[in-house]
């Protein structure tokens, strides 16, 4: 069964533009190779962090909306956990609006 997910991750601010683009492409490739469909990717830019994370005061925020299975997300999150370029990540499952056929009730 496939759901819609939103993944937000923060990359180190000292990465160059080429490395940022490579990191974004790497995580999108992991998702796509495991059957996920990328719906949208937003490069949110460099922001100041609320508190220091791994000796970093700023980070580059990236948001990816995708549809797929939990297995694809587990593989992507494992790669992020092992990576030095990602300092924090979070994936949430989005509420999917009910279809009209599912919303009908028998009276």
From TrEMBL:
Highest taxon listed in the record's lineage: Bacteria
One GO BP: translation
GO terms for cellular component: cytoplasm; ribonucleoprotein complex; ribosome
Keywords on record: Ribonucleoprotein, Ribosomal protein, RNA-binding, rRNA-binding
GO MF annotation, one: small ribosomal subunit rRNA binding
Signal peptide: none
Stored Gene3D superfamilies: 3.30.70.60
InterPro entries: Ribosomal_bS6, Ribosomal_bS6_CS, Ribosomal_bS6_sf, Ribosomal_S6_plastid/chlpt, Transl_elong_EF1B/ribsomal_bS6
Family named by the database record: Belongs to the bacterial ribosomal protein bS6 family.
HAMAP family, per the entry: Ribosomal_bS6
Function: Binds together with bS18 to 16S ribosomal RNA.
Designated name of the protein: Small ribosomal subunit protein bS6
Taxonomic source organism: Neosynechococcus sphagnicola sy1
GN (gene name): rpsF
């Amino acid at each position: 069964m496939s759901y819609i997910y939103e993944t937000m991750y923060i990359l180190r601010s000292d990465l160059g533009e080429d490395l940022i683009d490579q990191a974004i492409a790497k995580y999108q490739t992991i998702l796509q190779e495991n059957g996920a469909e990328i719906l949208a990717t937003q490069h949110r830019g460099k922001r100041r962090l609320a508190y220091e994370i791994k000796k970093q005061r700023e980070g580059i925020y990236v948001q990816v909306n995708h549809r797929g299975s939990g297995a694809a997300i587990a593989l992507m999150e494992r790669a992020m956990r092992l990576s030095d370029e990602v300092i924090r990540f979070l994936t949430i499952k989005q509420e999917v609006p009910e279809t009209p056929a599912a919303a009908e009730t028998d009276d």
